[in-house]
Specification:
Blueprint (H helix, E strand, L loop, with lengths): L7 H12 L27 H4 L4 H7 L28 H10 L4 E3 L16 H10 L3 H5 L33 E4 L3 H14 L3 E4 L15 E4 L6 E8 L5 E8 L4 H10 L2 E2 L10 H7 L7 H4 L6 E7 L5 E5 L4 H7 L9 E8 L1 E2 L3 E9 H4 L3 H13 L1 H6 L3 E8 L5 E11 L3 H17 L9 E3 L2 H8 L13 E6 L6 H16 L4 E5 L14 H5 E7 L9 H22 L20 H6 L3 H11 L16 E4 L11 E4 L3
Parallel strand pairs: 2-4, 3-4
Antiparallel strand pairs: 1-2, 5-6, 6-10, 7-11, 8-9, 8-10, 12-14, 12-15, 13-14, 13-17, 16-18, 17-18, 19-20
Helix pairs in contact: 1-4, 17-19
Length: 640
């Protein structure tokens, strides 16, 4: 490893002094909304302080310069990688850790206690890791672990074969466990100024592995847990009412509980371990409350953000409005690092839920009868969306060549039990006519949170046997009998071919009349489906390549054909096929050209990279040919 370009002693000592300074006030150039900053947001890096440092030290952690507004020149082919001559020396990393008040963590894979090559082998710890590897909270609480290890490269999974090798694979090399904004700024500036890959993680929930990156410096926002409720808020957008200010580390479970405690409702996802203020909100965020309040991003009033030049700013309707537009639906890990978000809180609302299942075997019905029932269900989607309901369901092929339907659940905000039965009576009557055995068992709740808590358990993660993809189906497919038949046959054929299909009926439209980057597909949809092939736990490159072909060609291919982007079909960017062709339009809809323009303005040096993120088409991770994309490889410019 090459020596540091900076003398270790000169580097270490002044940075140590910086770490011991008291909280530094914001500079006059920084604008904020009228909301109070969280305590961790008051700790900031400023130009005034940087001016006191020697030139060598300042070069490591300085803000981006004015020339960053110009297109990058003489850019290197690849991000600096461990083993390169310009990779920072151990002394530099030590000094950075001192600057960060000891927040720098050298990555140790979560499953490394199962292997001898890391020097921390422990059979009991390995057993605990193995037991908890499908638990999302296990990965959430680890600085680097990701909930979808396929995209890490599967290089360090729990195993009983302790003499095999565990490697970092797609895990970042170092992590900053941030507890204040200044640490985010320092880490981001360091990564930009040394040309090291930067990644951001909260929970690691992303299906596509965006919080992973071999050879990267990672910013871990998990512990920024502050939540503040403001019952009387006047936004610069014209909104007046209750809001929450939510820290970057807050999960869906935590904001739902806070809303319930304050007798209000917020728009969040169905998986409680998802990080709320990061990729979920910035990716648009579909929600069981979408038929009342649209997408989660539609409910955002302001965000506090560290941008690619290291500055800490507010994005709102009146402050940096172009960035505000992009951050509401334009994807995470792309335009900046969100430290908090202000979201609307809506009145308490009652909910009726219904969870049930039926199968061809239990009811003694034919497969044709089953699919007649499914067709009747699908035909109801526009009406069900217009009636402000939502559902989450699965269709499972069974071992006896039949099928099972699982409603998990039907979700009816603002309904009574009587209105629930009235709405679904046409479909329930068909089920009874076909002599299907089912019990809708509707339950009435006087508020969102208890209904949510009963309806959705936490998901199982950490699996390496599924490669998921999804499709958003536009309302236009229901406006023509011919289009509907073609679409429904494509969906049915997917299931007949043995694929498990998960789905939603939902119609978020644009109920709050927002102008933001939420994909145009979500403004037109009434159905969203997930499907994917199964691979063996030991799948190597050849099996993975074949599975990726099946996903693209046999599952998503027919769905794309009946729901093309030209007719407002698309794909939800947070639960998608990581190798989705034409992802720019599929994930971002008609908004992509404007998003790319904003990306080039706010991040001209391309500090932020995430797979399939806006502007990422100029980069590739050189992980070998897996068919699907992992993060186990050097990040390089395409064509170099």
């Amino acid at each position: 490893m090459a020596p540091s370009p900076f003398p270790a002693c000169a580097l270490f000592k002044p940075l140590l002094l910086f770490s011991l300074l008291p909280t530094i006030a914001t500079s006059s150039a920084i604008k904020f909304s009228h909301l109070p900053l969280f305590e961790y947001e008051t700790h900031q890096l400023t130009d005034e302080f940087l001016s006191t440092l020697t030139p060598d030290i300042r070069a490591l952690v300085a803000f981006g310069s004015a020339s960053d507004s110009l297109p990058p020149k003489n850019t290197s082919a690849c991000k600096v990688f461990p083993g390169d001559t310009n990779w920072p020396s151990p002394a530099v990393w030590t000094a950075l850790n001192t600057t960060l008040n000891g927040a720098l963590i050298s990555t140790v894979p979560a499953a490394s206690p199962c292997y001898t090559n890391w020097g921390n082998y422990n059979a009991d710890t390995c057993a605990a890791v193995t037991k908890n590897f499908t638990n999302p909270y296990f990965h959430e609480d680890d600085p680097t672990s990701n909930m979808w290890p396929i995209y890490q490269g599967k290089t360090c999974l729990p195993t009983a074969a302790s003499n095999t090798t565990c490697s970092l694979g797609g895990y970042p090399t170092y992590v900053v466990n941030v507890s204040q904004v200044s640490q985010i700024q320092i880490a981001l500036n360091f990564a930009r100024n040394t040309d090291i890959r930067l990644v951001i993680k909260n929970t690691g929930h992303c299906y596509l592995g965006k919080s992973l990156g071999a050879g990267a410096l990672s910013i871990w926002t998990h512990n920024l847990k502050t939540i503040s409720f403001l019952p009387d808020y006047r936004s610069d957008s014209g909104y007046t009412g209750a809001v929450f200010k939510v820290g970057a580390g807050v999960t869906v479970r935590e904001i739902y509980k806070a809303a319930h405690d304050n007798n209000v409702t917020v728009t969040g996802g169905i998986c409680e371990s998802v990080g709320f203020a990061g990729g979920y909100v910035t990716g648009g965020g579909h929600t069981p409350m979408s038929t009342h309040y649209g997408m989660a991003a539609d409910n955002v009033e302001a965000l506090e953000v560290v941008t690619a030049d290291g500055r800490f700013i507010t994005a709102s309707n009146s402050s940096n409005p172009d960035l505000f537009w992009a951050l509401r639906g334009g994807g995470g890990s792309t335009f900046g690092i969100v430290t908090s978000v202000v979201v609307r809180a809506h009145p308490r609302i009652p909910v009726v839920t219904s969870t049930f299942q039926f199968s061809t075997t239990e009811s003694g019905i034919s497969n044709d009868d089953f699919w007649d029932i499914m067709k009747a269900w699908w035909k109801m989607f526009p009406v069900l969306g217009d009636k402000q309901t939502y559902s989450y369901f699965w269709i499972w092929p069974t071992e006896d060549a039949g099928f099972r339907f699982e409603m998990k659940p039907f979700w009816a905000p603002g309904y009574t039990l009587e209105k629930f039965y009235e709405l679904l009576d046409p479909w329930f009557s068909l089920l009874k006519e076909k002599k299907v055995k089912f019990d809708p068992n509707p339950l009435y709740f006087d508020a969102f949170y208890p209904a949510y808590h009963v309806s959705w358990g936490n998901e199982t993660v950490g699996r390496v046997t599924k490669i998921p993809g999804n499709r958003i189906f536009p309302r236009g497919n229901w406006e023509s009998e011919e289009k509907f038949e073609v679409m429904f046959n494509a969906i049915r054929n997917t299931s007949l071919n043995g694929v498990v299909v998960g789905g939603y009926h939902q119609a978020p439209m644009n109920r709050l009349n927002q102008d933001n980057a939420v994909s145009s597909a979500f403004r037109h949809t009434v159905s969203f489906l997930i499907g994917g092939p199964t691979v063996s736990a030991e799948a190597g490159r050849e099996e993975m390549r074949e599975a990726a072909k099946v996903l693209d060609r046999d599952i998503l291919g027919p769905w794309r054909k009946v729901a093309p982007e030209s007719e407002f079909g698309g794909s939800y960017l947070n639960e998608a096929n990581v190798a989705e062709p034409g992802w720019q339009e599929s994930f971002y809809g008609v908004q992509y050209p404007r998003l790319l323009e904003i990306k080039r303005k706010w991040d001209p040096k391309e500090v932020f990279y995430a797979t399939t993120a806006v502007g990422s088409e100029g980069w590739e991770v050189r992980d070998g040919d897996w068919g699907t994309k992992t993060q186990d490889g050097r990040l390089c410019r395409v064509g170099t």
